[in-house]
Amino acid sequence: MALNKQELKSGIVSIVRDMQKRDADSVEEFAERLAGAIDTYVKGAKITYTSGLVAPNGAVTGTFNGKLE
């Protein structure tokens, strides 16, 4: 799955709007919910490997050729 910036933005807007309706400040809750949204976004990343690494009988060597989507 590729990163979905619009979905992250929508999640952040939703969190902020919900927090604005609160009578009491809850910085901890906001931080926890924002961290969760970012965590979900990052875990949705897809790495596309094209070439560059070799490991015939030992440690992997070479230059990673690919991209993070």
Structural class: alpha+beta
Provide the low-confidence segments as ranges: none
**Mean pLDDT across residues:** 90
Strand order of the largest sheet: 1-2
Distance N to C terminus: 8 Å
Basic shape? elongated
Helix/strand order:
HHEE
Share of residues in strands: 15-25%
Explained architecture:
The chain has helices at 5-20, 27-43; strands at residues 47-54, 61-68. It is α+β, with helices and mostly antiparallel strands and 69 residues long. The termini are close together.
Entry keywords:
69 residues; two-stranded antiparallel ribbon; 2 strands
Task: Lay out the secondary structure.
Layout lengths: L4 H16 L6 H17 L3 E8 L6 E8 L1
Antiparallel strand pairs: 1-2
Summarize the structure.
The chain has 69 residues and is an alpha+beta fold. It is built from two helices and two strands.
